[in-house]
């Protein structure tokens, strides 16, 4: 994370892709060059009353065009995310990044299998869906993607280009009715390594499933953050090992994560 930078970046484009879900491409001089799947940026509003930035996961990285894409949910009236949604092409925004640790891409190191013999399962739920897209693009192995939504889907076309896609919706409007674990069971899916991002109940179920099946599993945790750089300890999660910074059984999601080996943390 030593390579993080704060920039006044320019909005390339922005559009709504589902109810309260927005996709924004940002031109950045430095961040796109070093960012990896699973990292995030902190985005600052122009409202002086909102001092803290909003952490948003990276959805796509375009190094050639120095662009990064974020897909985020507007969380309510008067929020920072509502202010982001009003930005137009050509507007500027202050961002800090890339932040956190990303997903490990070397499946051979993690599974002992060659990339051509390894099957990776990418699981996203809700606003944990977007960060799985760049991971899918960069993993050089067979990919099975399981994405869970409440009702409205987004990024489906992009995922279909990367491998086999399975959908779960809570209302049953598409794919399996239920959650991602229901979709995995209904379709008889299996994998040698799992990558997941989503709400805590989903990650808890995936962690337990991976342990039962003896599958290497990496999870990206969602926590409310303040500083975003590991100083304030506002986003700690419980860990099995004692943290060298806080000297308790905690890890800082923003700096030690957001990606963890599932056996490292308690959910």
Describe the 3D structure:
- The protein has 267 residues and is an alpha/beta fold.
- The chain is 18% helix and 34% strand.
- It has helices at 31-34, 80-85, 107-111, 131-138, 156-160, 180-186, 200-213, and strands at residues 5-18, 21-27, 40-44, 54-57, 60-62, 67-73, 92-99, 119-125, 142-149, 164-169, 176-177, 193-197, 216-220, 236-238, 250-252, 259-261.
- The protein has a seven-stranded antiparallel sheet. A seven-stranded mixed sheet has the order 11-10-9-8-12-13-16, sandwiched between helices.
- The model has no long low-confidence stretch (mean pLDDT 89).
Which structural traits does this protein have?
267 residues; alpha/beta; 7-stranded antiparallel sheet; 7-stranded mixed sheet; 18% helix; 34% strand
Task: Write a short abstract of this structure.
With 267 residues, this protein is an alpha/beta fold. The protein contains 7 helices and 16 strands.
The chain-level mean pLDDT equals: 89
Report the count of strand segments: 16
How are the strands ordered across the major sheet? 4-3-7-1-2-6-5
Strand content: 25-35%
Which secondary structure elements does this structure contain, and how are they paired or packed?
Layout: E1 5-18, E2 21-27, H1 31-34, E3 40-44, E4 54-57, E5 60-62, E6 67-73, H2 80-85, E7 92-99, H3 107-111, E8 119-125, H4 131-138, E9 142-149, H5 156-160, E10 164-169, E11 176-177, H6 180-186, E12 193-197, H7 200-213, E13 216-220, E14 236-238, E15 250-252, E16 259-261
Parallel strand pairs: 8-9, 8-12, 9-10, 10-11, 12-13
Antiparallel strand pairs: 1-2, 1-7, 2-6, 3-4, 3-7, 5-6, 13-16, 14-15
């Amino acid at each position: 994370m030593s390579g993080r930078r704060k920039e006044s970046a320019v909005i390339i484009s922005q559009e709504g892709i589902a109810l309260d879900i927005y996709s924004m491409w940002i031109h950045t001089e430095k961040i796109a060059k070093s960012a990896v799947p699973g990292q995030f940026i902190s985005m600052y509003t122009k409202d002086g009353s909102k001092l803290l930035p909003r952490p948003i996961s990276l959805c796509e990285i375009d190094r050639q065009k120095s662009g990064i894409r974020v897909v985020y949910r507007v969380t309510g009236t008067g929020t920072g995310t509502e202010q982001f949604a009003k930005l137009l092409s050509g507007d500027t925004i202050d961002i800090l990044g890339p932040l956190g640790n990303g997903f490990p891409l070397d499946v051979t190191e993690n599974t002992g299998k060659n990339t051509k013999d390894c099957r990776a399962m990418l699981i996203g739920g809700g606003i944990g869906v977007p960060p799985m897209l760049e991971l899918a693009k960069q993993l050089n192995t067979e990919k099975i993607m399981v994405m869970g939504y409440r009702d409205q889907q987004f990024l489906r076309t992009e995922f279909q280009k990367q491998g086999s896609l399975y959908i779960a919706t809570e209302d049953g409007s598409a794919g399996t009715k239920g959650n991602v674990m229901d979709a995995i069971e209904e379709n008889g899916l299996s994998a040698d390594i799992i990558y997941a991002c989503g709400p805590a109940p989903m990650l808890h179920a995936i962690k337990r499933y991976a342990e039962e099946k003896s599958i290497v599993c990496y999870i990206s945790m969602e926590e409310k953050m303040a500083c975003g750089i590991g100083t304030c300890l506002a986003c700690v999660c419980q860990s099995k090992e004692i943290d060298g910074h806080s000297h308790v059984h905690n890890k800082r999601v923003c700096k030690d994560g957001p990606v963890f080996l599932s056996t490292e943390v308690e959910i």
